[in-house]
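Customer escalation, tier 2.

The customer says the design service returned an amino acid string that "doesn't look like it belongs to this structure." They asked us to rerun it and document both sides in this ticket. The original structure tokens are below, unchanged.
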């Protein structure tokens, strides 16, 4: 039997690579003679660059960039050579503005900036890339992509003509945008934004309201940040001619997706917001790997009703169904199982505190995979 294991990260517990390896270990325990193929997956958040580059054998490029709170840091992006074409660049926003880069007590979404994402885009363009995938999940910022726009040459001015510093707290003073320096850099570039949510930039389901609290947004700072993003969206629409307030997925990454659309389209780039899971699956040729497997095993931290809506597990299960292959899932916890999933097993024992289960993630996930595989072999 040939088994393909393609898990995503168990947030706060295991990376996608660790989760995939833990599941593979459990499968081997239950079925020692099985051929187990490991293919970690991502949805545009942490791990995107490492997974894509490891799969296709591409190098990662380390360059200096601006971190989430303005300090310099080293960060990597991927550069995939393609025969007869320019390189494909792969960037993850989490590399320069990731939430995990900022200790809980130091999180400051009013000042956190996406500048580093723009710097990596510039570096990728200088390396010759004309198609760029940008994963925008897992960020510490709520600046709507204003910082990356500044890094790409946009000048954000107040009503006195003074350039604004980076950080969303200054955006409520934004009066106009000068984007003249960006057009030649991005014209004709294909920019593909990998997201795992469809939230818009503003409102009750927007970036500030839904994802702000985990970044440190408080009830006191939320109104200011929402006003700042409204002003950013208003001036972008007026000066750049690109509406971003009602853009599905625009709220991903603290609004980085909306900012990339604004600057990219204004500069003549071909910009699309796409399912991160689908983009990564395409980049690692997942459909082909599934077609060569007898069984597909995936995993995530939580299996629930939201899993069916654009998440990595749902996409993998759909690809498996299209290929006529069964798909089973190991999850940290299970509330609901999508119709496309043939069986599932929870790794967290009933009653175990979440923090304890997360600390023991590798052992628990491996054991759950062994239980799941034993049951599958017995029943099939």
């Amino acid at each position: 039997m040939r088994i393909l294991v393609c898990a995503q990260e168990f947030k706060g517990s295991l990376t996608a690579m660790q989760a995939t390896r833990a599941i593979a270990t459990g499968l081997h325990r239950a079925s020692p003679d099985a051929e187990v193929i490991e293919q970690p997956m991502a949805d545009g958040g942490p791990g995107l660059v490492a997974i894509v580059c490891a799969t296709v054998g591409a190098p990662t490029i380390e360059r200096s960039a601006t971190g989430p709170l303005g300090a310099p840091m080293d960060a990597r992006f991927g550069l995939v050579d393609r025969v007869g074409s320019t390189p494909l660049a792969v960037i993850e926003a989490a590399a320069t503005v990731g939430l995990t880069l900022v200790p809980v007590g130091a999180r400051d979404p009013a000042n956190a900036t996406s500048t580093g994402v723009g710097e990596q885009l510039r570096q990728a363009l200088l390396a010759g890339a004309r198609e760029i995938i940008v994963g925008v999940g897992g960020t510490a910022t709520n600046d709507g992509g204003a910082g990356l726009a500044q890094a790409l040459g946009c000048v954000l001015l107040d009503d006195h003509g003074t350039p604004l510093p980076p950080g969303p707290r200054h955006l409520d003073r934004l009066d106009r945008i000068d984007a003249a320096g960006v057009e030649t850099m991005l014209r004709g570039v294909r920019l593909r934004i990998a997201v795992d949510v469809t939230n818009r930039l503003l409102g009750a389901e927007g970036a500030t309201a839904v994802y702000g609290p985990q970044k440190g947004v408080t009830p006191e700072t939320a109104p200011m940040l929402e006003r700042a993003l409204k002003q950013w969206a208003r001036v972008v629409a007026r000066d750049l001619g690109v509406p971003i307030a009602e853009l599905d997925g625009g709220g991903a990454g603290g609004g980085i997706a909306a900012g990339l659309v604004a600057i990219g389209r204004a500069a003549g780039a071909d910009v699309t917001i796409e399912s991160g899971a689908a983009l990564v699956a395409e980049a690692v040729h997942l459909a082909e790997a599934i077609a060569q497997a007898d069984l597909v095993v995936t995993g995530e931290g939580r299996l629930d009703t939201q899993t069916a809506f654009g998440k990595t597990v749902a996409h993998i299960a759909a690809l498996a169904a299209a290929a006529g292959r069964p798909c089973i899932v190991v999850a940290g916890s299970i509330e609901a199982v999508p119709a496309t999933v043939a069986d599932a097993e929870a790794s967290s024992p009933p009653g175990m505190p979440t923090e304890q289960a997360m600390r023991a993630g590798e052992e628990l996930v491996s054991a759950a995979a062994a239980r799941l595989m034993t049951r599958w072999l017995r029943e099939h």
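Tier 2 assessment: The sequence is consistent with the input. DSSP finds 14 helices and 13 strands in the chain. The radius of gyration is 21 Å. Sent an explanation to the customer and offered a walkthrough call.
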